[in-house]
């Protein structure tokens, strides 16, 4: 029943993902995993577009002509997070999403670069 609310619930978690406290960022990542299990196909695709800061070059909202628009790559901020625990949780979540989501094959192109970045992390445990 929450299928159509996947994107609004994910948008509600964007602010905690960039919180200053690492425990809040970790909890937001865990919650994002639960949200992604609620939605499939295009709903999860929209969520991953938001989280990676993707902007379709062939589609531009009218609002962009009058106001500046910013796309934030939340995943990029998590992969370079100063806290080792957050980076470890992020890599764990990405690996979990790549193996457990029903529509995981649609998201490989967006998620695999972050797994590869995790291989070269400064902390060996990550």
Gist?
The protein has 126 residues and is an all-alpha fold. It contains 8 helices and no strands. It has one domain.
Describe this structure in words.
This protein has 126 residues and is mainly alpha-helical. It has helices spanning 6-12, 14-17, 22-38, 42-52, 63-66, 74-79, 84-100, 108-119. The radius of gyration is 15 Å and the shape is globular.
Task: Quickly list its features.
mainly alpha
Helix proportion range = 55-70%
Number of strands: 0
Low-confidence stretches: none
Tell me the major beta sheet: none
The value of Rg in angstroms is 15 Å
Cα end-to-end separation? 36 Å
Mean pLDDT: 87
Secondary structure category:
mainly alpha
Beta percentage is: under 5%
Please give the domain count. Answer: 1
Instruction: Count helical runs.
Output: 8
Shape by Cα distribution = globular
Q: What is the oligomeric state here?
A: single chain
Element-level helix/strand string: HHHHHHHH
